[in-house]
């Protein structure tokens, strides 16, 4: 067994994840390297979900009965946990959504309907980057089409990093909002937040950070980031599907208009007009994903107990090892940074002219689950002139042995199509 | 029976025979709503320098929210602002204690009848009922003193 | 034990619901009569959720590996089940959302951004009713504020039914959309769909039906309803929280613009522009609530096995019994229809001048869970001049003994505050 | 090895040596995309009355989608439209069979080399790859015959 400095005790951790014992395709042990798409869930989270439904299930906020009080306490308790996890100044700044995509659309829509000084309209500009996930592109394209605002973006350098050389031309006095990804889900790149935030603050633009690939893997401190909004998603960080988070600065949440209307988000309703509850409820129309929020709270507990810094260290060691081993494979080209510095544990690559679909299929046959395609970041593929990539992504339960399995698997792919 | 800890006789008495109910002249008026249950209160404060001359109110709601407004009237009218604030803070502290604050003699001296709400603090859904009039009073007082631009909060 | 004709074998059914064995407040058996807020979940649904996470969890649609294929098949299989459950002409007409509120907001937003002939603007009218849930009021108020369209509504009769006497004045040639609730969550009223749909079709208005309180309790046939859109929510029909459904007619889904933008809903994305996938994916941005959809599929299986007609019959018998028994309670006034005809198993009432909060609290102490307040339908309370109601709502596992417990409980309330 | 059922030699041969690749003159052109993986094809059809004179194409994608376009070219060029439609439908049926259709002699006679794709039908994620060019051909033919307004579908 390969021994790397900084690794977690994966033997113990893997026992928490029932699915990792799965055997696929006639006896192959599952090697799950598709963590950037979604993570697996520890028993601790599944137990909490089950307990919620078996003991306390009720609708929240409006009940005087015991189950409703328990459910409300669990749901609002999850908000406390998430707030602590991201070091939010106030629990009321944590909005539960269904996924990161809803969180990002929520911001785009708030800004489209906002009054001055936040309003995005035809005289203003929106800035994103060429390495965004589609969920941080399309909402801004829609906003731009619907308001007439101009959409601009930062391009990429050859080695998979943001090209900030013309930052003063990209972010200007007209810029109302700058939205960018903290860790790219295709390149693995960790972006330089400070430089972008400083320039945005200089021109008075709001900053939105897509932390979907950061929250699962590193300590997230919304105060240190100095952003105005931070979005992420539960299913990638050991939580259930169906739950996302939008953190926003309190005064913005107070000033900005609601997005979805309905139960829970109101103060008082008459047929003629309605007033809205204070944030976060203003932005949580309808029965929220109660069990899923509670499950996310359990996931946050789980990750915190292991320690986000320890997880980062583990993944860094693994990435260093994986990059090295992958670069030994003939014809393999990493799309993105080719060292482990300032990058996460997500590695995209091409293998000669073998199409990623074929790479993925042959790996799957060996029990190795990777993702292939454009990873909802097609502009990156266009930028590097490739149709798609194969992507291996690691998490706290991933091991050097799984890296070895991947490398062997790729040899097999090469032979198969050789 | 555990319920009795919430529905103390003092509370039921205030509910059935509320003190100072009705709207009279004031320096500021606020309207507060508890969006989770629809309880509403309109409350006015009249100050004479640092002294609370009157707190008048009108509203609809459960026994807890109604009794709490009545107790507030009884407790605060005639008090100096500083003293009233101390009472309000003590009450807030008690209500947010989740049933864990042990009311002692000192607290009882400050809160008088309002100490009867200790049991309510065990029922999260009802804490907001008990606090409705107190939050309204705080808001109205700030307005009367010209500290805020007015408007309602929940 | 009271024997009523048409009852289900609740003894057997209750064994499927672990939470119904719960004991609250020092030994009181839980009597759960808050089903209109949310239903409890059978073990069959919880097992499917657990299995999903322990065996097949992966992100859907984009994977060539085994777990991704299984997850996709389960998720899309749930769509097939829901389509069959509501007799949808095509599975592609079933959109998964996070709850009914999102479904209704989705329609309102599509129409706000649509081109002619669907576009809602200042020259057009929107029609709803005074008995709508806030989730079917506020989205239309927002749309009306944002487009200038006029919002109109049907009032209510003294006995809790829609006043359709002026239907020709309410629904006019200017009406673009009529949105109404099939079964009221506060009054229990079942509304006369046909009369409204006929008039709407005459003037060429689209029809949206909020079936949140219908789908759990009766056979829902979207073709028979002749609506254009039907919304409902999973958590009220034995499914998980975090999942809702919008059914829409295929040609409308093709013509109308998307709402949320992001991964999964696109065909192809470049920085300059994007094209969208066909429905239903066009309306499902981001990672969907995968496990929750799968859980809803299991709920639909569960309900279908028992038989929706049998459930309706059970609830009808129980409602008939409950209305009769409640009317025996002194000072009790039912808000809504006072017979079991054309009404669902949700009964709102006031009890003298005892505030519903106090009623609910004293019932809770006896283990009886009811809901109190305006039930997200405040205009109904305003209409009947009451601050709030106490609401008891039944489901397939409810029993006559639970009705008796409620009635006894109310006697106790009267004594307590007498 | 199970994979061999998908990657038949026939398929790999077509992938490595595609037939009729490249864009030539046509009566109609379509561009199809598989949004789940990004495979793309541009395809042109040239008809001579009821006879398919040429099917030319350009695209990017995996071995399955490329081989399938090559097989399509080999199978359909020179055929009468009615016969080509029968082949297309048989292929569609086979691909949607989830690995359950047992290819028999009759089917093999219709599909020739395309019968090699039987194994692909067991892999739901790959079925769309195999069908991409066939759907494009159907669409382009309809356009060439003036049956539709054109435009792309996925
Ligand atoms: C009639 C009606 N419509 C809409 C809703 C909203 O459903 P959800 O809260 O799941 O969005 C509800 C329930 O809360 C309802 O009863
Ligand atoms: C960087 C990034 N942003 C946004 C998303 C969208 O998350 P979700 O699909 O949960 O909405 C993802 C993952 O899919 C992502 O990797």
From TrEMBL, chains A, C:
<keyword id="KW-0808">Transferase</keyword>
<protein>
    <submittedName>
        <fullName>Cysteine desulfurase</fullName>
    </submittedName>
</protein>
<keyword id="KW-0663">Pyridoxal phosphate</keyword>
<feature type="domain" description="Aminotransferase class V">
    <location>
        <begin position="31"/>
        <end position="406"/>
    </location>
</feature>
<dbReference type="Pfam" id="PF00266">
    <property type="entry name" value="Aminotran_5"/>
</dbReference>
<comment type="similarity">
    <text>Belongs to the class-V pyridoxal-phosphate-dependent aminotransferase family. Csd subfamily.</text>
</comment>
<dbReference type="InterPro" id="IPR000192">
    <property type="entry name" value="Aminotrans_V_dom"/>
</dbReference>
<dbReference type="InterPro" id="IPR010970">
    <property type="entry name" value="Cys_dSase_SufS"/>
</dbReference>
TrEMBL record, chains B, D:
<dbReference type="Pfam" id="PF01592">
    <property type="entry name" value="NifU_N"/>
</dbReference>
<dbReference type="InterPro" id="IPR002871">
    <property type="entry name" value="NIF_FeS_clus_asmbl_NifU_N"/>
</dbReference>
<feature type="domain" description="NIF system FeS cluster assembly NifU N-terminal">
    <location>
        <begin position="6"/>
        <end position="129"/>
    </location>
</feature>
<protein>
    <submittedName>
        <fullName>SUF system NifU family Fe-S cluster assembly protein</fullName>
    </submittedName>
</protein>
């Amino acid at each position: 067994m390969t021994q790397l400095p900084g690794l977690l005790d994966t033997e113990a951790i893997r026992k928490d994840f029932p699915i990792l014992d799965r055997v696929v395709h006639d006896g192959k042990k599952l090697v799950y390297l598709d963590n950037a798409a979604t993570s697996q869930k520890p028993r601790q989270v599944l137990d909490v979900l089950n307990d919620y439904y078996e003991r306390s299930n009720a609708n929240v906020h409006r009940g005087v009965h015991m189950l409703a009080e328990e459910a409300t306490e669990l749901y609002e308790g999850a908000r406390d946990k998430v707030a602590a996890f991201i070091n939010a100044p106030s629990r009321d700044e944590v909005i539960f959504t269904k996924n990161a995509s809803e969180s990002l659309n929520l911001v785009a829509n708030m800004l489209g309907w906002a009054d001055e000084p936040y309003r995005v309209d035809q005289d203003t500009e929106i800035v994103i980057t060429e390495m965004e996930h589609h969920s941080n592109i399309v909402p801004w394209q829609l906003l731009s089409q619907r308001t007439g605002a101009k959409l601009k973006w930062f391009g990429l350098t050859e080695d998979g990093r943001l090209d900030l050389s013309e930052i003063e031309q990209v972010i200007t006095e007209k810029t109302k909002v700058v939205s960018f990804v903290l860790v790219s889900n295709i390149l693995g790149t960790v972006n330089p937040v400070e430089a972008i935030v400083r320039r945005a603050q200089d021109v008075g633009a709001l900053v939105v950070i897509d932390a979907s690939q950061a929250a699962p893997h590193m300590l997230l401190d919304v105060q240190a980031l100095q952003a105005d909004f931070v979005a992420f998603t539960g299913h990638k960080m050991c939580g259930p599907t169906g739950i996302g988070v939008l953190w926003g600065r309190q005064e913005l949440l107070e000033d900005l208009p609601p997005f979805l209307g309905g139960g829970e988000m109101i103060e008082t309703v008459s047929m003629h007009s309605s007033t809205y509850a204070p944030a976060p409820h203003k932005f949580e129309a309808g029965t929220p994903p109660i069990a899923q929020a509670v499950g996310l709270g359990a996931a946050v507990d789980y990750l915190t107990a292991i320690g986000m810094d320890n997880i980062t260290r583990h993944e860094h060691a693994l990435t260093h090892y994986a990059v090295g081993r992958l670069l030994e494979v003939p014809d393999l080209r990493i799309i993105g940074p080719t060292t482990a510095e300032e990058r996460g544990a997500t590695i995209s690559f091409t293998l000669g002219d073998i199409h990623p679909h074929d790479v993925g299929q042959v790996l799957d046959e060996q029990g190795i689950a990777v993702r292939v395609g454009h990873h909802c970041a097609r502009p990156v593929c266009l930028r590097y002139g490739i149709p798609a990539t194969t992507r291996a992504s690691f998490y706290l339960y991933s091991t050097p042995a799984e890296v070895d399995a991947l490398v062997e698997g790729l040899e097999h792919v090469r032979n198969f199509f050789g | 029976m555990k319920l009795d800890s919430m529905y103390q006789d003092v509370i039921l008495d205030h509910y059935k025979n509320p003190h100072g109910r009705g709207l009279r002249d004031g320096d500021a008026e606020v309207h507060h709503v508890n969006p989770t249950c629809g309880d509403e209160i309109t409350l006015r404060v009249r100050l004479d320098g640092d002294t609370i001359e009157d707190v008048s109110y009108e509203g609809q709601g459960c026994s807890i929210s109604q009794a709490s407004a009545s107790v507030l009237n009884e407790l605060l009218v005639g008090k100096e602002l500083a003293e009233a604030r101390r009472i309000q803070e003590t009450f807030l502290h008690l209500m947010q204690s989740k049933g864990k604050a042990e009311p002692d003699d000192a607290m009882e001296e400050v809160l008088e009848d309002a100490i009867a709400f200790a049991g309510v603090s065990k029922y999260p859904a009802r804490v907001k009922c008990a606090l409705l009039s107190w939050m309204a009073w705080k808001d109205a007082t700030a307005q009367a003193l010209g500290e805020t631009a007015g408007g309602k909060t929940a």
